[in-house]
Amino acid sequence: MVENDKQTEEKIFESATAVFIDKGMDGARMQDIADHAGINKSLLHYYYRTKERLFNAVFEKIAGQLFRRFAPVLDEKLSLEEKIRFFFREHITFLQKNPGLPSFFLNEINRNPAMIKKFIRHIDINKLWTTLEAQHKEELKKYNITRETVPQFMTSIAAMSVFPFAGRVLIASIMEKMGYDFDDYIEKRKEYAADFVISAIKK
Amino acid sequence: MVENDKQTEEKIFESATAVFIDKGMDGARMQDIADHAGINKSLLHYYYRTKERLFNAVFEKIAGQLFRRFAPVLDEKLSLEEKIRFFFREHITFLQKNPGLPSFFLNEINRNPAMIKKFIRHIDINKLWTTLEAQHKEELKKYNITRETVPQFMTSIAAMSVFPFAGRVLIASIMEKMGYDFDDYIEKRKEYAADFVISAIKK
DNA sequence: GTCTATAGAAGGATAGAC
DNA sequence: GTCTATCCTTCTATAGAC
């Protein structure tokens, strides 16, 4: 039955996503995924042939999700400052719903750098920069964001939203020990990060 | 021979460190470590009994290295701004020599949160905050760094120096594609990050 | 202390029945 | 399409000779 096929294949994919994010490629067991999906181990091979193919399917989906999030901000008709606010609000909200993605993604990339080529096409930073420059020539000049400093600027933005999630287990532990609430910290970070970055470039 | 014991045990430890950082706990093979050390696989068990014990030894050393780096800045007789500059210079220089540590550390923590308890004693942030408050009461007030916002502030500092290394394979790839040099970017980041943070809190 | 040989377990993958 | 049974490889760990 086609209906059942779809259900099973999707269930496998979702279970694989959960298990791979939790354990990583090396730590994940096909048995774990089968158990999570409530099906037999050999069905995984029936639908995806090998562990590697299953992993690649999951990884590509996640990579796409992560990077498609960076582009839409450019389409908005907003000032540069408003775009910074918009980005942090959207991106951190997305990560709140998917807190395990940054750590999973960065780690798998480090373990297997060859995988970058598969999705680096999703990212055309030269185009992103050209667009940004066309939209905000005056503001960029005012803030001293040039072709020289744009990597510093962009990675600082990414760092401000991604790092709290990449290190969330550690950060949450330390905060708990000190009487802070991690979820509250994240919620407030949407505004804090925007203020922080805007102040930083205003000088 | 005691001389030989020490040499072999150290060689194993160093090889294990290299392999674990590269492959992670789950991806590392005892055979890889033995090959790297140029010795027989069973010698690993002779000195460390199990893979887990060997890993724990490596992990604890690395965790110590990473966190002891945060404290000395407090001993210096410097203004808050100078301390921020001092920290980025020292910490990024350390990470230049050990670029794989952040990714390895954060990932293993996420995979096995229970490990945090083993070294969270290295970190007494309440004491750190009390010291900082005593040393820079006026400046902290001026910059609006309070007990409320200190987690935001501290994680932003950490993010600015750690994130470029945690995501270095990805960042370096994108930069190479765009004609930037990663090492140059990192070298310049020591100053950029300090300027960025100081401007951010000055408002 | 270091090696060879191998036990014992686990995991990925396949064959074949239904 | 889904299951049971099982193969084959890989990996950790140990036994035992030197």
3D architecture notes:
Two copies of one chain form a homodimer. Chain A has twelve helices and no strands. The longest helix of chain A has 26 residues, at 2-27. Helix content of chain A is 78%, strand content 0%. The first copy, chain A, has two domains: 2-60, Homeodomain-like (Arc Repressor Mutant, subunit A), CATH 1.10.10.60; 69-202. In chain A, helix 1 packs across helix 6 (101-111) and helix 5 (80-97) packs parallel to helix 10. The structure holds a DNA duplex (18 and 18 nucleotides).
Topology summary:
The structure is a homodimer of 203-residue chains.
Chain A: H1 2-27, H2 30-37, H3 41-48, H4 51-68, H5 80-97, H6 101-111, H7 116-119, H8 125-135, H9 137-142, H10 150-166, H11 168-178, H12 182-202
Helix pairs in contact in A: 1-2, 1-4, 1-6, 2-3, 5-10, 5-12, 6-10, 10-12
Chain A binds a DNA duplex (18 and 18 nucleotides) through residues 1, 4-5, 8, 29-31, 39-46, 49-51.
Key phrases:
DNA-binding; homodimer; mainly alpha; 2 domains; 203 residues
Produce a short descriptive summary.
The structure is a homodimer of 203-residue chains. Chain A is built from 12 helices and no strands.
Fraction in beta strands of chain A: under 5%
- Assign the structural class of chain A, choosing from mainly alpha, mainly beta, alpha/beta, alpha+beta, or little secondary structure: mainly alpha
Q: What Rg of chain A do the Cα atoms give?
A: 20 Å
Q: What is the overall pLDDT average of chain A?
A: 93
Q: What general outline of chain A do the C-alpha atoms trace?
A: globular
- Helix share, percent of chain A: over 70%
What's the quaternary structure here? homodimer
Kindly, what is the distance between the CA atoms of the first and last residues of chain A, rounded to a whole number of angstroms? 64 Å
Largest interface: A-B, 53 and 53 residues
Number of domains of chain A: 2
Give a quick account of the main beta sheet of chain A: strands, pairing sense, barrel closure: none
Number of helices of chain A: 12
N to C succession of SSEs of chain A: HHHHHHHHHHHH
Could you name the ranges of chain A where pLDDT drops below 50 across 5 or more consecutive residues? none
